[in-house]
Amino acid sequence: MGFEKITQTSNHGPNRPAALRWLARIVAVLAALSLLSGLAARRAAAQETEPSKITIADITDFHGHIEQGPWIADQLGRVREYNPGNTVAVSAGDLVGGSPYESALHKDEPTLAMAKAWGLTISAMGNHELDRGVKDFNDRIASKSHGIEWLAANVRKTGPNGIGNLRDYTIRMVAGKRVAFVGAVTDHLGSVLSRSVMRNVRLDESAVTAVNRVADRLSDGDESNGEADVVVALIHDDADLVAKDPVGLDANVDLVYAGHTHAVKTDRRTASGAPIIEAGCFGRYVAVQDLMVSGSGRQSQVSVSNSFGGPLVGDWPSSTDPAKVVSAVQTTISPTDAVESILRRADASARRAGDVVVSSVPQRYDRTDKADRDPKTGRIALYTLIADAALDGARRTTEGAHARVGFVNPGSLRTQALDLDGDGFVTVREASDMMALQFDNAVVTLDGATLRRAIAQQWHRDDEGHWRSGQLGVSSNVTWTMDLDGDEPKVLDLKVDGRPVADGERITVAGNSFLLTGGDGYRAFLRGTGYADTGVPYARTLIDFLRSHD
C-alpha cells in the first residue's frame, strides 16, 4: 500500500506539480554550477594574463669585503619582504679574490659562508675566482657545499682545458615563471690572469656571442632543449663594452648585470632596449629590479623597472636610495645572526694574526701624495719600495739568486697607502691588504734592449696626444732618462747598480707572476727566457723586506 502510494506520488495524477518543483530546483543547481565553473575559468584566464612580478637583486665585484656583509644581508632581507617568495639574489662575478685580510687570511672561506647565509645561489664566474688556479676553483670555490651555481657560457668545460662545476645557465621557477640566468666572463681574461692559470682555461666564444647562443636556444619554442620565460644575463665585463659590442645582445635577453671594472653604470641598454646595469664594487651597492612577465616561452612579454625608484641601493649617507628602500618596504629586518657571527669570527682571527707589527716606516708610502714622489724623476716611493722587495725576495730563492732588477705594476696593488692609518708602523694586515692579489714572486731573463722596452711600455699617449706614464715601479738601483720626442718612447742612459746596460747584456729581473707573464699590457716581459715562479707569495716578499730593513 505504501509502495503504491509512493509510486503514484512520484509519477502520476494530482502530485505532478511537486515533481516539477523538484526538477526546477535541480536545473537551477546545475545552472549555478555551470555559472560558477565559467567564473572560475574566466578568473583563471584573467590570472594567466595578469603579469607575474619577479624581483632580482644583484651585487658585483664584492672581492671578499665581508665588512659590508651585514648591510647586504639587511638589503636582501628588505627586498625579500617587498616581494615574498619571488626574489632571486645573484652576483656578476669576482665574489672572491683580491680580498681584504679578514677574508683573504682564510682563502675567502668567510665570504663563501657569508654568501650562503645571504641566500646568494647564482653567480657569473669572474676572473678573480681563478686567482688560485683552476683546481682551486673546481675543488673549493665551486664546491656544492657553498650552494652557488657558477656560470660562464663562453668557457670550455670539457677536455684537458675544461673547468668543472661550471655551467652555461641555470633556470629557477619564480612566481610561476621560468627565469634563466646565463653567465659569461670577460673576453679579456688572458690579460687579467697569470699565464700559468690561462694554460688551463679556454674561451670558446666571446661573452656576448655565448649569451646570445644560450638565450636563443632557451627561446626557440622547443621544450626538448630547454625553454625559459625570462632571460637574465650575468656578464663579468664592463657595461659599456657589453653595450657597444659589435655583435650585440639580441632581443631574447631581458636584463643584463655587468661587472669587472668596479664602476657604477645604470643607463646603458642593449639594441632591443634591455637595461644593462653595473653595480659598483665591494658590496657598496645592490641593484634591484622588477620584471613583469606575461605569457610563456616564445610568447612571453617582459618589462623591467627599478624596484625602489632608482636602479641601485647604496650604502652611504650621500646616497638617497637607502631611504627609498626603507619607505618602500617599511620593515625593521636586521642582518642575520649567521652573517654577524661569520664577521665576528673573521675579525677576531684577523686581529690575532694581522695586527702584528712588521716594521716602522719613515713615511706613509701613499701613492697619491706628492710628498711621496721624487720631484726629479717622478718615481713614486711606494712603487720603488715594492720593486725593491720583489728583487730582494727573488735573491733569497734558488730561482732568483742572480736577479738584478725588480718590478711592480701599480695594478697589482690594492690600497692607497702602505701605512694606511698613518701611525708610523706597518702591520701584517696592512702589507697583506696592499698585496692582496694571489700572485707569486717570479723571475725572467731579458736582454738589455728588451729591458729598455719593458720600462718604455709604461708610457702611452692620451686622447689629446700627450704622453702619460703608467708609473711602472722599478727597483731603486736602476736609473734612466726618457726620450719622448719621437713617435715611440725611448729609454736612454739605462744603468743598473751604476753600470750602463748594453743591448745584448742578459739581466734577470723579478716581479709578480702576473706582470712577468705580460699582465697589464707589459708584453715585453714575454720576450724573456727562463721564466720561473719562485713559489713565494709576493706579499711575503714585502713583509720579509720590511722586517729586514727596519
UniProtKB/TrEMBL annotation:
Residues 56-263 form the Calcineurin-like phosphoesterase domain. It comes from the Bacteria. Signal peptide: none annotated. PANTHER family: 5'-NUCLEOTIDASE (PTHR11575:SF24), 5'-NUCLEOTIDASE-RELATED (PTHR11575). It holds the Pfam family Metallophos. One of its GO terms (cellular component) is outer membrane-bounded periplasmic space. This is Bifunctional metallophosphatase/5'-nucleotidase. Residues 373-525 form the 5'-Nucleotidase C-terminal domain. The keyword Metal-binding does not apply. SUPFAM superfamilies: 5'-nucleotidase (syn. UDP-sugar hydrolase), C-terminal domain, Metallo-dependent phosphatases. InterPro entries: 5'-Nucleotdase_C (IPR008334), 5'-Nucleotdase_C_sf (IPR036907), 5_nucleotidase/apyrase (IPR006179), Calcineurin-like_PHP (IPR004843), Metallo-depent_PP-like (IPR029052). One of its GO terms (molecular function) is UDP-sugar diphosphatase activity. Belongs to the 5'-nucleotidase family. Gene3D superfamilies: 3.60.21.10, 5'-Nucleotidase, C-terminal domain. One of its GO terms (biological process) is nucleotide catabolic process.
